[in-house]
Write a structure and sequence with these properties.
The complex is a heterodimer of chains A (about 260) and B (about 260). By secondary structure, chain A is of the alpha/beta class. Chain A has helices spanning about 30-45, 70, 75-85, 85-90, 110-115, 145-150, 155-165, 170-175, 185-200, 205-220, 220-235, 240-250; strands at about 10-15, 15-20, 55-60, 100-105, 105-110, 120-125, 130, 165-170, 180. In chain A, the strands form 2 sheets. Chain A has a 6-stranded mixed beta sheet, sandwiched between helices. Chain A is globular and about 65 Å long. In chain B, helix 1 packs parallel to helix 2 (about 75-90). Chain B folds into 2 domains: about 5-195, 2-enoyl-CoA Hydratase, Chain A, domain 1 (Alpha-Beta Complex); about 200-245, Lyase 2-enoyl-coa Hydratase, Chain  A, domain 2. The chains are: A alpha/beta (about 260), B alpha/beta (about 260). Chain A: This is Enoyl-CoA hydratase.
């Protein structure tokens, strides 16, 4: 793993790769460099054959309280178009391994958009979510209006995006944004437990399932069904499929190789 | 801070003294603002392991300042913007909060006392559900806490008849932790707070949380939350200290974390 990162920390725990946003003095507000480093770290873990699952979290009091306002405040539209800074976010879509987000404290604006890029979100029960962009005369620009709407539906997304109101982990749970809200002290521990559970599964299955679920969100049902079917067939070329089904017949625990 | 309340921290105790003595410490906007700031500061301050709310002068608090009640007042908005944040902050606090009711606690003054974890009553204190006498309902969480403290039937009687309750009656109803005489007031309030400030504060916070969950969650969810809470307690310094002290047959020296 590259050690040239200055805004994030990366570490591995067996077959789990961890990325920690590490600008706690500014509540991990995202700037261009930080997003670039997060995406690079995701890509490196994605290519690392020993890593099966990725966990994303924030150091300090917050996951990420938003984006660095100073960086864009005085830019004009043409400068932003040419800078094309959000294109780096598109690369997160290509990450094949499951990303588990463990969020706490403030999960706002760009920080919330980053959280929405995760495949599974666990939250501390005192986390605060929200898209405050509307109150600054702008709007989310790194997928917020798209990902949130696809996740929780038009009506709920409209209310949260138009009002800019902050909402609790409890509400995030009710809306289906996070899969669980647990005490702050153990949110990372719980994310790691989940990561270890997933890491024991055959990684090719994880990969094909993740891809298919994303297709379900983006494609019409018929197209999605075709994509799912191809992925299903594809897994029958894996050693783990043979092992998994054989072990089931032989009533023993499977020994998956990730191949 | 400092206009409507006095706030100080000493010996791990945060003292919040309602200080509109000429108005019997009745609530207005500035008092709520300052209380909320003080409560949040006490929550953040790692030194603080117990919070005491009391009143300066004769009264604990006479409730909402009726001078501010005009014809065009939106009562709902007053609750939402001023009372609710304070009540929620008290409920979410992970530190023991004591109301030392030094005199009359009427209306939302009583509600404030009900929202606290413990109520110490001065022997001459009076509790009054004053709301019904002006055609209003007990607010700021009053009817949330009251039936949990004394049961549905008694809560109904108090809310509907609004009779003055003496500290002795309050004790019998289960509303008071302790009734304290005039002579002993300062010392006993201080020593009660100090006892709380020496507890394993982390465990206290988790107990408070679990107790309130017992009213809200079905058993299976409650037990799941309990396992999280015990995991957190099990990671605390004070747990280790408690076990070592037990083995060494000495008193534990809890640090609150």
């Amino acid at each position: 793993m590259s050690s040239s990162f200055s805004t994030i920390l990366t570490e591995t725990s067996e077959d789990i790769g961890m990325i920690s946003l590490n600008r706690p003095e500014v509540l991990n507000t995202l700037n261009i460099r930080m997003v670039e480093e997060i995406v690079q770290a995701l890509e490196q873990f994605d290519q690392d054959p020993f890593i099966k699952v990725i966990v994303l979290k924030g150091q300090g009091r917050a996951f990420a309280a938003g984006a660095d306002i100073d960086e864009m405040m005085n830019k004009n539209s043409i400068e932003l178009e040419l800078l094309n800074q959000f294109t780096v976010w598109d690369r997160i879509t290509w990450i094949k391994k499951p990303i588990i987000g463990a969020v706490h404290g403030y999960v706002l604006g760009g920080g919330f958009e980053l959280a929405l890029c995760c495949d599974i979100l666990l939250s501390s029960d005192d986390a605060e979510f929200g898209f405050p962009e509307v109150s600054l005369g702008i709007m989310p620009g790194a997928g917020g209006t798209q990902r949130l709407t696809k996740l929780i539906g038009r009506s709920n997304a409209m209310k949260l995006l138009l009002s800019g109101e902050r909402f609790s982990a409890k509400t995030a749970k009710e809306l289906g944004i996070v899969s669980a809200a647990v005490p702050n002290e153990i949110v990372v521990e719980e994310a790691m437990k989940l990561a270890r559970l997933l890491a024991q599964k055959p990684s090719l299955s994880l990969r094909m399932i993740k891809e298919s679920v994303h297709k379900a969100v983006d494609l019409p049902l018929f197209e999605g069904m075709q994509a799912e079917r191809k992925n299903f067939y594809l897994l029958f070329s894996s050693e783990d499929q043979k092992e998994g089904m054989r072990a089931f017949k032989e009533k023993r625990a499977p020994d998956f190789k990730g191949k | 801070m400092g206009e409507a309340i006095q706030y100080e921290c000493s010996n791990n105790i945060a003292w919040i003294r309602l200080n509109r003595t000429d108005k019997l410490n009745s609530f207005n906007e500035i008092m709520h603002k300052e209380m909320l700031l003080a409560l949040k500061d006490a929550e953040r301050n790692q030194e603080v392991r117990c919070i005491v709310i009391t009143g300066n002068g004769r009264a604990f608090s006479a409730g909402e300042d009726l001078e501010g009640v005009t014809d065009d007042l939106d009562h709902g908005e007053v609750i939402r913007s001023r009372y609710t944040p304070v009540i929620l902050q008290i409920s979410r606090s992970k530190k023991p909060i004591v109301s030392a009711v030094n005199g009359v606690a009427a209306g939302s003054g009583l509600s404030l006392a009900l929202a606290c974890d413990f109520r110490l009553l001065h022997e001459k204190a009076k509790l009054v559900q004053a709301f019904i006498h002006v055609g209003l309902i007990p607010d700021s969480g009053n009817l949330f806490y009251l039936p949990k403290l004394i049961g549905h039937a008694k809560a109904m009687e108090l809310a509907v008849f609004g009779e003055k309750i003496s500290s002795q009656q309050a004790m019998e109803l289960g509303l008071a932790t302790k009734v304290i005489t005039e002579d002993a007031w300062d010392n006993e309030v201080q020593s009660f707070a100090l006892t709380l400030a020496c507890l394993p504060t982390k465990a206290f916070g988790l107990i408070k949380e679990q107790l309130s969950r017992s009213w809200e969650m079905p058993l299976d969810e409650f037990l799941e939350a309990e396992s999280y809470s015990q995991r957190i307690a099990g990671l605390s310094y004070d747990h280790k200290e408690g076990v070592i002290a037990f083995k060494e047959k000495r008193k534990p020296d809890f640090q609150g974390n």
